[in-house]
Amino acid sequence: MISFINCENCADIKMTIFDVLSAKEKELLYKNHSCATYRKGEIIYKEGEKPIGLISLSEGKAKIFKEGVGGRDQIIRMASSVSFIGYRALFSGDNYTSSAVALEDCMVCIIDKESLFTVLESNSKLAVNIIRFMARELGISNSRTVTLTQKHIRGRLAESLLFLLETYGTEEDNITIKVYLSREDVANLSNMTTSNAIRTLSAFASENVISISGRKIKILYLKKLQKISELG
Amino acid sequence: MISFINCENCADIKMTIFDVLSAKEKELLYKNHSCATYRKGEIIYKEGEKPIGLISLSEGKAKIFKEGVGGRDQIIRMASSVSFIGYRALFSGDNYTSSAVALEDCMVCIIDKESLFTVLESNSKLAVNIIRFMARELGISNSRTVTLTQKHIRGRLAESLLFLLETYGTEEDNITIKVYLSREDVANLSNMTTSNAIRTLSAFASENVISISGRKIKILYLKKLQKISELG
DNA sequence: ACTTTTGTATGTTTTATAACATAAGTGCAC
DNA sequence: GTGCACTTATGTTATAAAACATACAAAAGT
Hints:
2 copies of one chain form a homodimer.
Chain A: H1 23-31, E1 33-38, E2 43-45, E3 53-59, E4 61-67, E5 73-80, E6 83-85, H2 87-92, E7 99-102, E8 106-112, H3 113-122, H4 124-150, H5 153-168, H6 183-190, H7 194-206, E9 210-213, E10 216-219, H8 222-231
Antiparallel strand pairs in A: 1-8, 2-7, 3-6, 3-8, 4-5, 4-7, 9-10
The first copy, chain A, binds a DNA duplex (30 and 30 nucleotides) through α7.
């Protein structure tokens, strides 16, 4: 847990990745961090901009997406608190190659780039943690490349729903996915048009695999959804 | 340059990523490395296997691919000497999530996992280099996810040809792509069926954008190919 | 309360691409 | 050299998904 204990906004940041830091190192990061809030729909960072630090999403949910060929967005990641966003460009030294938009009111904590790299160079354990973290992300990305290209619409949508379930969990009823997405976002996550996302969600609902009420989606028949996802 | 100067096989390994190592550290890696050769078509590693070390492709070319839903492969990376392969699983602690096959006779150099991690924990500069390297790979992977899903066949094939050109360069004539791939490999790289790869290559040839003689592909009109790739 | 905008839903048409079929060419084994 | 398997080539058909069209519902602004 990073010791941002003096910062009321970041007090709850639990980043096991920082477990390996000394008190002094944590202090340096703490001294050089800042907080910001974003309202639902606001841009946290944008494709082409230069990263100024490591952004940790302390509260709220965000979508990370790239603009595609015909202006069609592809969501490449759904972020939930607490996790890092925008770290790829920061580490590679590029400008952002994707954008982040708040899906609900968000609180972020930005650790200054210079300080982070100072700590990174002094503490190889942190660096190894980050390598491990990024290796997992790369695995997810490669996997998505295959499923998004090879699975059919139903398979892709089923996978997305499972993915949302895993990422955001459920409400108290244990079946309602705890995220509030437009059909367009669902489509952009699943590589399909909005029409087809609506259509296929309806199909799943009429098959009693899920139930829809507005943007709230309940998973009624998990096994079947998993099967649809696997079969592609 | 990693000081594998005593190893006749690895003498030519120039990995700037290891520049930051001390003589002692290089020595440790050297002592704990081994070499292997693979003939064209042989499997270097396979999806599901456990990584035993960091593999550096010292000579030859290889394709890295994942098996998709209907047994259809998706090539996620084309590797050329000198570069690392199979590092993702090594760093994440997983088993391999992709396979590597030699496209021509290959020589690899395997640095023992334990030794690598020892050096990695003692030298944060190496770790930072690896973080930077992986961040770039993640960017490429995300980018490919979007282009492979959103571009049309012609755009995807054009992009693949440009990608091969960039990765492997040309023969002495400056226009023949320096790699010898089956149409099936081209298809698996571009997310299309073999038929469509053949068809679209023929189309490009009849438009004088490329010329084909067997598996040798010449880029006749680079600008046009780039345009086809951009338009999608 | 009323219009305007935005999102959702669903039917119809069109199109890109896969699937299938077949033939010709190429390289390899014997 | 001859036969066999594999690759390349190309035409035809089938189909999944996009594009388009329209209607309705919900939210937002006036």
